[in-house]
Amino acid sequence: MSTTTEETRRTAAVTELGVGARVSVHPHTDAFVDVITGALDDVRAAGLTEGLQLQTDEVSTWVGALEAPAEQRIAAYVSGLVAATSRRSGGGHVVAHVLLSRGCPGEATCDLSLGSGVGLPVAAPVELAPTGVDAVAQWSLYPLMDAATTTAEGVSGEHMAHIEAAIAAAQRRGTASAAAHYATVLRGDVADVLATAVDAWASVGAVVPHVVTHLTVSTGSPTPAGGPR
Fold it and tell me: Pfam families annotated for this entry (predicted)?
């Protein structure tokens, strides 16, 4: 019989969970180097790197949260970076790839053995000021480590309940505009799009030890809504 009580149970710290993101921005302009470095300067000057650790390689930048509120810090950084890149490119076409992971301590090792006396933290909804930059994103959510629940057909279906609830919340929020192959389309200000995805990711993370979400965000696209058929 477990001796763990509500009084002795503690909540996992940000550094134990491994709350972070991988981000890359791709401004479609010959001056992409100046645009990217200028946008990075902008978010740094705005104080959006506080409480975060950044590591850039040839592919992307890892953004690791060092302290709470982790989700708020990451959302503000990514939203600010995408908006700054759009402004630096004069409103031209910018694409950003964003991968968010919550519940993978050490990132590379992914040891989730937090113990029976450790609970998952519940994050408050993020609050982001409007950027004035419109965006469209293709968004996917991946709750990992399902409980061993199996249907009569032999298929575990628990993860779909989390995904469907997240999509419903995005629809109520007004950012989910359509379904797409393997994704949900989000539209709105960059801040609203990022807040939708981050809040859903964090909400699932309060009950599922490891959850990942992915967005491809586009601003200033020359392709009409819906694209060519």
Answer: Ykof
Residue 46 neighbours by CB distance under 10 Å: 13
**pLDDT tens figures, 53-90:** 999 999 999 999 999 999 999 999 999 999 999 999 99
| Separation CA 7–CA 18 (nearest Å) | 25
Instruction: Give dist(CA 202, CA 127) in Å, integer.
Output: 13
Residues 154-168: b if buried by 16+ CB within 10 A, e if exposed: eeeeebeebbeebbe
Distance of alpha carbon 101 from alpha carbon 207, whole angstroms = 14
Cα-based torsion angle of the residue sequence 197, 198, 199, 205 in order, rounded to the nearest 10 degrees = 110
Give the other-Cβ count within 10 Å of 111's Cβ.
10
Domains and CATH numbers, the chain: 12-108+132-219 (3.30.70.930)
* Number of alpha carbons in the 13 Å side-chain half-sphere of residue 173: 22
For 171-198, write each residue's pLDDT tens digit: 999 999 999 999 999 999 999 999 999 9
pTM, rounded to two decimals: 0.87
Task: Tell me if residue 174 falls in helix, strand or coil.
Answer: coil
Distance (Å, rounded) from C-alpha 92 to C-alpha 220? Answer: 5
